[in-house]
Structures are given as structure tokens and as C-alpha cells.
Design a protein that fits this description.
The chain has about 425 residues and is of the alpha/beta class. Helix 12 crosses helix 14.
Length: about 425
């Protein structure tokens, strides 16, 4: 893979052209218009380097990992475990044993809810989440509460979409057993003050899980600096394949947790009388894993690591700021979510068109956005909107993409406004 370390140090136009050239899907047209992809919070596109890594595995090294003594199995195992080490380094985990491969953020949170939560919680215990959570960080805890008798507590948010830290402090109590919080909101773009949240929880010996699905591609994540106890994310939100994700957990916590699923690979010995479980990380990786997905995730990490995160942040912030400027002056448009600290999400409503109509019409202009409740129905209820239209930006998006979105909105206004 060619290095992109200095890409953003050239002129912005040529830098983005180089980035965009890595993503083959962006070269197509939709309804006769150049594709403008603004649905990155749902999934990012994949650079050719990731596509090639997955193809190379299936073309040359396709075999099951671990225990195989033949050459293909050894090569596949080496690439699979290299990917784990790349994740370890990328998020600065203390050990590869702390990196568990899952199907994605959702399964990572479910693993903690069932293994950590179900084995420890009892009636009277409390779990704290927030109003802005994705359903994947609500429903697993509801299920665990139903199973254990624990109670779910919810941190309120302001009209701007920011957490009420004073309310959070009051919710923390001697009964709190876990705080599970989104690092950055998929529906609003709000980046939460997770360092403060973790410090306050740890002062009362309460562990913290962070849902990092949206944060992982937009900012550096250092789990040791954060001192979070669990961190969950999906590869497909960070230029990697679908169906593969990561659960980071502090080794002492993972060691004490019972297996989440049973089967091959996660055992040391099996008899009809009893089974002995394997060591980390195998204990939580039952069955044949998504080998190609892990290798693709490793390639995606290589790709991101070759970029300058400060330059990524500067570019994405510029695009988001421009989108906010366009939105602020647009007739009948209301921005949903105006936190001071945001990543690249512009959620909005028009007072003369339903979000579903907005999405359909702008698609005919070649612009892909997401519409609906964004798997955050309690948040929509809090903000008194049934749904929003959401444009979400990534490293390959430009000011021209924002202009294309608003050209599409002009078509909506001509029909409904």
C-alpha cells in the first residue's frame, strides 16, 4: 500500500483527489449523476487496499485458522493474528489478549451484557446509559435487566444534544454496577466528554463501556489513556468489511468473565462430564471466525494509520462547518443536534417535507443520505421529531458534496416548499 502520510500536506484539492481515487465505488453514477456518498455513519466505503487484502486471502490463503499444520492454514493464521496485533496497536491496548473479534459493535456490547452483566448483576443493581444511545446500547441492557432484576438509569440531554453531567453525577450511586455510553452519537454527531465520565465512574469503582462505532474513524482512540474498561467498534464504520468488529476489554475483567458462546476454538478440553475453557482471546471466539473480515480490518487499519489524524480532523471539521453554514441559511431547515463538540454528522428536518421524501428526492440527484430514527428512537422522542435526514461525512467528502446535497434539497423545496 502506498503511504498517505503526507497526503494532506499537499493542497487540499489534490489531497482529497488522491484519497477519493482509493475508493472505487465513488467513481460511479447514480440516476445519471456522479455519486455523492453521505451515509458514512451507517457504513463507510472501502479503499482498494482493503478490497485487495480480502481478495488476496480468498485467492491465495483461504483456510481455517489455528491448529492447521499445512501452509495455507499457517498463512491464514498469521494474517488473522497480525490483524489482532494491528488493532491492539491502533487503540493502544496493553495486550493482544484484550482484543476479541466479534461480528461488530452490537455483538461486542451483547457479549459484555451477557457475560459480564448477567454473571454479576442482581436485583437492586443499576446500569447507567444515556438518552442518545443507539438501540445496540439500550436493548442488550434491557434484556440483562430482565434476566437479573437490575434497573436501567438514563442520563438526560439538553436540547442541543449534550449530556447533562450534573444529572449523571446524581445518577451514580452505591448501586451503580456499570456505565455504558456512546463515545460519539450516530444521530447527532455529539462527542461525549468520556474522560470526565470515566473518571467520575471510577471514583466509585464503577466500570465503563464505550460504544466507539462512530468515533473510531474520526479520532485517535487510546484505551489506556481513556482508562475505559470496555471499548466496542465495527470495522465497516472505519473502511473495513462488514460482519467483523472488536471488543476491547481489560484483561483482568475478561479473565473473570464466563464464555459468551460455546463451541470449537474456545475450549481446552471437552468431555461429556465437563469442559475446560481456553485462554484469552480464544475463550470468546467460538467457532470459525470471519477470517477474511479480520484481514480486511487489518488492511483498513493500515490505511488509516498512513494518514495524519489531525489533518483528517481538520478536513472533516471544515466540511461539517461548511454544511452547517449552508444549513443555517436554508429556508425551512432545522438542524437537529448542535453540540459544541461534534463529529461529521448533519441531522436536520424540513418543515415542509418528511425525511423519507427528502431521502428519495436527493437520491435522484445522486446523493446518498440516511433518513429515519437512526436506531435511536428514544432520542427522537426526546427531541420531539419522528425522524431526521442525516448527512454524514468522511475523509473523501468535499465542499462540493455539500453543495450537491443542497442542490438536491432545492428539488425537495420546489416540490413541497
Amino acid at each position: 500500500m502506498s503511504s498517505r502520510a503526507d497526503t494532506f500536506n499537499t493542497s487540499e484539492t489534490s489531497a482529497i483527489e488522491q484519497i477519493r481515487a482509493d475508493f472505487p465505488v465513488l467513481k460511479q453514477t447514480v440516476h445519471g449523476k456522479p455519486l455523492v456518498y453521505l451515509d458514512n455513519a451507517a457504513t463507510t466505503q472501502k479503499p482498494q487496499q482493503v478490497i485487495d487484502a480480502v481478495k488476496n486471502y480468498y485467492t491465495h490463503d483461504n483456510a481455517n485458522v489455528h491448529r492447521g499444520l499445512h501452509t495455507l492454514s499457517e498463512r491464514a493464521t498469521d494474517q488473522y493474528e497480525q490483524a489482532r496485533n494491528k488493532v491492539r496497536d491502533y487503540i493502544n491496548a496493553a495486550s493482544s489478549n484484550e482484543i476479541i473479534f466479534t461480528r461488530g459493535t452490537t455483538e461486542s456490547i451483547n457479549l459484555v451484557a451477557q457475560s459480564f452483566g448477567r454473571s454479576r448483576l442482581k436485583p437492586g443493581d443499576e446500569i447507567i446509559i444515556s438518552t442518545m444511545e443507539h438501540h445496540s446500547n439500550i436493548v442488550p441492557w434491557q434484556l440483562t435487566c430482565e434476566q437479573t432484576g437490575a434497573t436501567l438509569k438514563v442520563i438526560p440531554i439538553s436540547d442541543a444534544g449534550e449530556l447533562d453531567l450534573d444529572a449523571y453525577k446524581k445518577l451514580l450511586s452505591k448501586n451503580t454496577r456499570l456505565v455504558a455510553l456512546v463515545h460519539a452519537s450516530n444521530a447527532l454527531g455529539t462527542v461525549n466528554p468520556v474522560t470526565d465520565i470515566i473518571e467520575l465512574a471510577h471514583a466509585q469503582d464503577v466500570p465503563v463501556l464505550l460504544d466507539g462505532a462512530q468515533a473510531i474513524a474520526h479520532m485517535p482512540v487510546d484505551v489506556q489513556a481513556l482508562d475505559c474498561d470496555f471499548y466496542a467498534f465495527s470495522a465497516h464504520k472505519a473502511f473495513g468489511p462488514t460482519g467483523i468488529g472488536v471488543l476491547y476489554g481489560k484483561e483482568k475483567l475478561l479473565d473473570a468473565m464466563p464464555p459468551y458462546q460455546g463451541g470449537g476454538e474456545m475450549i481446552r478440553t471437552v468431555s461429556f462430564e465437563r469442559s475446560e475453557y481456553g485462554q484469552l482471546p480464544n475463550k470468546f471466539e467460538a467457532g470459525t471466525p470471519h477470517i477474511a473480515g479480520a484481514i480486511g480490518l487489518g488492511a483498513a487499519i493500515d490505511y488509516i494509520s498512513a494518514l495524519d489524524f489531525s489533518a483528517i480532523h481538520q478536513h472533516e471539521s471544515s466540511v461539517l462547518e461548511y454544511a452547517h453554514q449552508r444549513a443555517a441559511d436554508y429556508p425551512g431547515l432545522k438542524i437537529i443536534g448542535q453540540a459544541k463538540n461534534k463529529i461529521s454528522v448533519l441531522s436536520f428536518v424540513l418543515d415542509y417535507a418528511h425525511p423519507h421524501d427528502i431521502g428519495t428526492i436527493v437520491d435522484h440527484e445522486g446523493v446518498a443520505i440516511r433518513v429515519g430514527h437512526h436506531c435511536a428512537m428514544p432520542l427522537m422522542d426526546r427531541l420531539c421529531v419522528p425522524a431526521t435526514a442525516r448527512a454524514s461525512f468522511s475523509i473523501y467528502n468535499t465542499h462540493a458534496d455539500v453543495d450537491a446535497l443542497f442542490t438536491g434539497l432545492d428539488s425537495v423545496r420546489s416540490l413541497f416548499g
